[in-house]
Specification:
Elements: H1 2-12, E1 29-33, H2 40-52, E2 56-61, E3 67-68, E4 74-75, E5 79-80, E6 89-92, H3 98-102, H4 104-116, E7 119-122, H5 126-131, E8 140-141, H6 148-154, E9 159-160, E10 166-169, E11 172-175, H7 180-193, H8 195-204, E12 239-247, E13 251-259, H9 264-276, E14 282-283, E15 291-297, E16 303-310, E17 319-327
Parallel strand pairs: 1-2, 1-6, 2-5, 6-7, 7-11, 8-9
Antiparallel strand pairs: 3-4, 10-11, 12-13, 13-17, 14-15, 15-16, 16-17
Helix pairs in contact: 2-7, 7-8
InterPro entries: Class_I_gatase-like, DJ-1/PfpI, INH-QAR
Signal peptide: 1-22
Protein name: Putative intracellular protease/amidase
């Protein structure tokens, strides 16, 4: 009987349940493109988001060497284009992007790796690097608010979106400027793991994330500011320095410091000459020689008034000029 018992025991072995733990799912892999002139928050903000989401994040540069950011911070890099592993998500940050956008090795690496990636994301002016590959041709995309016109002019096959914090076009996700990359990275996390997971990451980061977009810099009133068509150029050594710039969707105020051989009255008169030649501007009759204002209809909508007011000279010869733009209707 003993041999029979052993035989039965062996036959019954496959029926014993296997309690071994299943292998954990592979981590989502993220590759962040790095280059000299990269903006710190453009890669560091999304890096934090993806890291907190449990993604496997690595950095990649052309030669794998350290890069110097736009603010001169030196950052070590994990991989070169030659040895970088494949990634599910590719992040293209912005900054001083002119050289990177024109670099053929960068273009080739992006095209090769974008083909297998599930999400390709740009932040701020990183849209130029992405657009230069042709991947954005025929697509909608956004960028840094001061970069809208540049992108529209240099990449006419791309439809520039000015009123969204990020734009999803298939696997491509473009972000507005700087801190917008944090919101867009959370959006990408939501694409991969769901909105609740993205909200949990945002909560851990103590970040007020809105899946619907939140703050949109491209809708602020300064984006509707209409200066004369002729450029405000000076050949007499005049120096204009911005001191402050703030407002909302209906009103914006920017203060400048002027260092010039022209006194405040002459400066305003110079701008007036340019404005009078622009038939789209209706110059208002102001009796103060240090003030100037005009009204206009914006191509993007609404009736607006822009005013300039120059203060008296300071002891060092400089003076302030404040520009205000206000929505009328």
């Amino acid at each position: 009987m003993k041999p029979l018992r052993w035989l039965l025991a062996i036959l019954l072995l496959p029926l014993v349940p296997n309690h071994a733990e299943p292998a954990p799912p592979a981590k989502t892999r993220v590759a962040i493109l790095m280059f000299d002139g990269v903006e710190i928050i453009d890669f560091a903000g999304p890096y934090e988001v993806f890291g907190q989401a449990g993604f496997d994040v690595h950095t990649v540069s052309r030669d794998g060497k350290a890069v110097k950011t736009a603010m001169n911070l030196r950052v070590n890099v994990d991989h070169s284009f030659a040895d970088a592993p494949a990634a599910d998500i590719i992040l293209v940050p912005g900054g001083d992007v002119e050289a990177a956008a024109k670099d053929e090795a960068t273009r080739a690496w992006l095209l090769k790796n974008a083909a297998s990636a599930t999400q390709v994301m740009s932040v701020c002016t990183g849209s130029d690097i992405l657009a230069n590959t042709g991947l954005l041709d025929g697509q909608k995309a956004t960028t840094f608010h001061n970069h809208f016109d540049h992108m529209a002019k240099n990449y006419p096959k791309v439809t520039v979106v000015r009123d969204q914090r990020w734009v999803q076009a298939g696997k491509l996700v473009t972000s507005a400027g700087l801190a917008s990359g944090i919101d867009t990275a959370l959006h990408v996390v939501a694409n991969v793991r769901g909105t609740e997971a993205a909200r949990s990451v945002a909560m851990h980061l103590e970040y007020a994330w809105s899946p619907d977009g939140g703050f949109i810099r491209g809708l602020m009133a300064d984006q509707f500011m209409r200066m004369p068509e002729k450029p405000l150029a000076f050949d007499d050594g005049t120096k204009v320095t911005q001191l402050s710039s703030l407002g909302d969707t209906k009103y914006w105020e920017t203060a400048y410091r002027i260092e010039s051989p022209m006194d405040p009255v002459a400066f305003i008169a110079h701008v007036r000459t340019l404005a009078v030649d622009d038939k789209a501007l209706r110059i208002l009759d102001l009796r103060d020689a240090k003030q100037l204002a005009w009204e206009y209809t914006s191509e993007r909508g609404g009736r607006w008034r822009l005013s300039l007011k120059a203060d008296d000279k300071q002891a060092d010869g400089s003076y302030r000029v404040v520009a205000k733009v206000m929505r009328l209707m």
